[in-house]
Amino acid sequence: MHLLEPDAALQSALLNYIDDVAVYNAAIAAGFTDLHGTQRESLTPWPRDLFPLIEDRKLKLQHEYVVFLNSYEQA
After folding, report:
1. At 72, is the pLDDT very low, low, confident or very high (cuts 50, 70, 90)?
2. What would the pLDDT profile of 45-65 be if each residue is shown by its tens digit?
3. Of 12, 74, 23, which Cα lies nearest the Cα of 48?
4. Is 24 helix (H, G, I), strand (E, B) or coil?
5. How far, in Å, CA of 23 to CA of 7, rounded?
6. % helix, strand, coil for the chain, step of 5
7. Cα separation, 40 vs 42, whole angstroms
């Protein structure tokens, strides 16, 4: 996560994703094989804003990289 340099919103979404995966894996390990319907509702919610936040951060980092390359070439 540190390489992504997340802002507060992205860091929160990433931590929610990690939590969702951990709870899902724990439910499977505990023997919950049908995680649809009411059992799925008891799990942590999926961070729906995760992918748009990652895409936005990726574009910002790409822009910073291009600016860096341009400044390096001009030096």
Report:
1. confident
2. 788 899 999 999 999 999 999
3. 12
4. helix
5. 24
6. 70, 0, 30
7. 5
